[in-house]
Amino acid sequence: MVEKIEASHPISDRDNPNHHQSSLGLSALTQDQLNTLIAQAKVKCQGGQLPTYIPLLAQANPGWVAVQVQRIQGERVAGGDINRSFPLMSVIKPFVLLFLLEQLGTEAVFSQVGMEASDQPFNSLAQLQADRGKPRNPMINSGAIALAGRLPGKDGASRCETLRQWLNQRSQSQLVLDEAMLQSVRSLPNERNHAIANLLATSGYLDHPEIALDTYNHICCLSGTVTDLAQLGMLLVQDNSMISPEHCRMVNDILITCGLYQASSRFATDVGLPTKSGVSGAMVSIVPSQGAIACYSPALDEMGNSQAGLFI
Ligand code: GLU
User: What is the mean pLDDT of residues 107-129?
Assistant: First the structure.
């Protein structure tokens, strides 16, 4: 039995009985408290599932849990399997959006993709058809594939490399392309993503569907540890002279309503933190003005979100 989403967010809401949009706990979190939460999360993730459509993801250990809390003020706190490297998968989506907002501006980006929530699965073709070929938001596959089509470069590899360098430089992370994961993604045909790319092309939202899809597959395989993911998350937290605060705010607003697939609205009501998950079990939450929480735990619930990540 897969559990429902927790009605609290233990790290950010630890001290607040009402737990709504609160972040009292981040600055005071201790190593012992985090260790206790990780031990509880290891129990929560039992019963979660590994995805099978990317064979290498199915080889992960469902019991792995890693967490890093990065605070604007104060030290990092980290625990669990923190040396594990994992592909970001859909967690790359908010950072593609951020990159393109910075490079192209809001008008160009939002002429390609909407910002409405979707209650359909992340790879829904029906949603795209219902929206007459315009992707509903950048956090579902249709939106991310459309945006992958706007990254600069001649092919998937060079576009991914441009994004990787930009993110590493600005966030001080050390993302790398996991070539073995990319091979694994390519090893089984993803008919749904192909159909999405083709519909985007016929509806005028994509010029070169094959290049966009290959770019999307590459960027999903950018990999790192929870330290890298927490650093990336900080791009959306700090008023950072290199990133426009307005663009940060837009990405955070979209994450609140769209970051966790069909679970987004429930999580927004219960927790209220901008959060993005990926099918690898990666998850990042932004605690505005305070810091970022990065989690990795590969056991997923029925909506494709990390069970331990939702708990933490
Ligand atoms: N590459 C994955 C896919 O399109 C990413 C999905 C996810 O992380 O949610 O199926």
Answer: 93
For ligand 1, say whether the CB of 278 is within 6 Å of any of its atoms.
Answer: yes
The answer to whether the CB of 196 is under 6 A from ligand 1 is no
Quick one: average pLDDT of 194-217?
97
Distance of CA 89 from the midpoint of ligand 1 (Å): 5
CA distance 120 to 127: 7
Cut 0.90: pTM above it: yes
Sheet with 291-296: list strands edge to edge. 77-80, 66-71, 291-296, 282-287, 275-277
Indicate whether residue 90 lines ligand 1 (CB < 6 A): yes
- Cα(58) to ligand 1 centroid in Å equals 13
Strand locations in the chain (E): 66-71, 77-80, 86-87, 176-177, 222-224, 275-277, 282-287, 291-296
pLDDT at 6 over 50: no
What band does 42 get if pLDDT is binned at 50, 70 and 90?
very high
Q: What number does the ligand 1 atom closest to the CA of 53 have?
A: 10
- What would the mean pLDDT of 228-252 be, rounded to a whole number? 90
| pLDDT for the residue 234 | 94
User: Taking all residues of the chain, what is their mean pLDDT, rounded to a whole number?
Assistant: 90
